[in-house]
Specification:
The protein is mainly alpha-helical and about 300 residues long. The chain folds into 2 domains: about 130 residues, no CATH class; about 140 residues, no CATH class. It is elongated, with a radius of gyration of 28 Å.
């Protein structure tokens, strides 16, 4: 049975652990970390996980380091045959180091708008903390810091900082104000179901207010994944989500939490559909005025 509005904090730590294992984030932290536009619209921007970030970084590390070594081998072979002076070897080694390990990564990130060979492989892109595309300044800072992150410490610095960062940032990301955004997010089809029979009478009189986007999204995800969860975890998540949703519903029906969530989702879907249909009808009524021309105004269309 759904309890009255109010958040029960008892046992919340267990629920967060269970929700994390099932693929759900902590609801409070998730809503707080959402990037909001100027129109108060939450953007669903997902940072790349630590494992994928590390895999992409390893690929880039091997590519750029291999290019550096190949450049030295080719030049030293040519210089040895030409019997060049020893000072030339030092100059070329320094130029090749800067070119392959600093200039090349920065140029690739700027020209590809945050991509690289490793990020193409894992489906990631470097963006600013506000979700915008990076510029030359961000790419240059990341490349210079990469000498310490990857080459100076053999990846140790990037590993430690990435494990401690919520968005798996490395030192270069922290300095430049960027992070790795994951772009290969599979679109989950939202299951369409009808109103439970037990809630038909309740739906006719229920007042279901508009809920925060984060809560609505978590309810939809739970209803889609509920059949694949074990009984204990399913019941715990349903009870927690139902308690959050009950603050936006009046009256609260005396049914099981999962049934209550299904009813709330159906009612909100129907009312939002009605609102969109009403808006379309109003636009249709004023369309002649919007598309028409003033009286006696020549129609040059």
């Amino acid at each position: 049975m759904v309890r009255a509005p109010g958040r029960d904090v008892s046992g919340s730590g267990d629920w967060v652990d269970e929700a994390f294992d099932a693929g759900f984030d902590d609801p409070d932290r998730r809503d707080a970390d959402e990037l909001m536009t100027g129109e108060a619209v939450a953007l669903d921007l997902r940072p790349t996980g630590f494992v994928l970030s590390a895999a992409g970084a390893v690929i880039d590390f091997l590519v750029y380091l291999g290019a550096y070594i190949l450049t030295l081998v080719i030049f030293f072979t040519i210089a040895a045959q030409a019997r060049s002076e020893d000072a030339v070897f030092g100059i070329v080694a320094t130029v090749a180091l800067v070119g392959c390990l600093v200039v090349a990564p920065a140029a690739v990130e700027v020209l590809s708008r945050g991509k690289s060979l490793g990020r193409l492989a894992v489906g990631a892109r470097i963006v600013r903390d506000d979700g915008g595309a990076i510029g030359l300044r961000h790419a240059a800072i990341r490349s210079v810091a990469g000498l310490l992150d990857f080459y100076g410490t053999l990846g140790g610095c990037a590993l430690i900082v990435g494990l401690l960062s919520p968005r798996s940032k490395r030192l270069g990301d922290l300095i430049a104000g960027t992070y790795s955004q994951y772009e290969r997010v599979a679109r989950q089809p939202v299951p369409v179901f009808g109103l439970p029979v037990q809630l038909i009478g309740w739906a006719a009189i229920a007042d279901v207010a508009r809920m925060p986007d984060g809560l609505s999204r978590r309810i939809a995800q739970f209803l889609a994944q509920a059949p694949r969860l074990d009984v204990t975890r399913r019941a715990a998540q349903a009870a927690s989500l139902a308690q959050e949703a009950s603050a936006f519903v009046s009256p609260v029906p005396a049914v099981e939490p999962e049934l209550f969530l299904a009813g709330v989702a159906v009612v909100r879907r129907g009312r939002e559909g009605d609102a969109l249909a009403l808006a379309a009808q109003r636009l249709q009524r004023v369309e002649p005025v919007l598309r028409g021309v003033p009286h006696a105004f020549p129609d040059r269309g």
